[in-house]
Amino acid sequence: MIKAWKKFLMISIVIATAGLFISNEFVNSQEKKDMGGWEKDSAYNKLYVATERDKFKAVVVGFKEIVPFPGMSPGIALLVRDPDEDIITVHLGPKWYIDSDEIGIRKGDNVTIRGVWVEGNEEEFFIASKVKRGDYFEFKVRLTKDGTPFWTMSPEEIAKESQNP
């Protein structure tokens, strides 16, 4: 009985140690990952001022690859038509994080977009925090309260946020 208990204890310690190692490696890899100008404290993300949040309704007309500032890695934007027939570029996030084929938003969808208006790189655009389609579907890319981009958060932080409506 004691041998079995010692064996169980040793296996548990090995599993716990491996789990800590993997967790630390994930955190370290996130800290070291080159986000290509999309980091939380980057000049681009500092443009998102949560106290200036706005929303508008539009129809999706397509997607576009963007480079918000010279030297940044490419990002994905929605192109939408507002009720005044203006085409608006809505920045969603970095291309390495967002796959336009898998976000659940398609050309022709009626959407409500929340985020902030920004002037940068000699153009006006909208940085989204969430895109809502219908009553039940929303695609979130930033925390509403402070604009923290999901791509800078740990999987645990994102899971916690997805539990909060």
Dominant shape: globular
Q: Could you say which structural class the secondary elements and strand pairing correspond to?
A: alpha+beta
Mean pLDDT: 82
Count of domain modules: 2
Summarize the amount of helix as a percent range: 10-25%
Q: Quote the beta fraction.
A: 25-35%
- Run of helices and strands: HEEEEEEH
Count of alpha/pi helices: 2
Terminal Cα span:
49 Å
- In CATH terms, what is the fold-level topology of the largest domain? OB fold (Dihydrolipoamide Acetyltransferase, E2P)
If strands are numbered along the chain, what order do they take across the biggest sheet? 1-2-3-5-4
Low-pLDDT segments, ≥5 res: 4-32
CATH hierarchy: architecture of the largest domain: Beta Barrel
What is the alpha-carbon Rg in Å?
Answer: 20 Å
Please provide the count of β strands.
6
Task: Summarize the main sheet.
Answer: 5 strands, mixed, barrel
How would you sum up this structure, described in words?
With 165 residues, the chain is an alpha+beta fold. Helix content is 24%, strand content 33%. It has 2 domains: 1-32; 45-163, OB fold (Dihydrolipoamide Acetyltransferase, E2P) (Beta Barrel). The protein has helices at residues 2-32, 155-163, and strands at 54-66, 75-81, 87-94, 110-120, 123-133, 137-140. A 5-stranded mixed beta barrel has the order 1-2-3-5-4. The chain is globular.
Describe what is shown at a glance.
The protein has 165 residues and is α+β, with helices and mostly antiparallel strands. 24% of the residues lie in helices and 33% in strands.
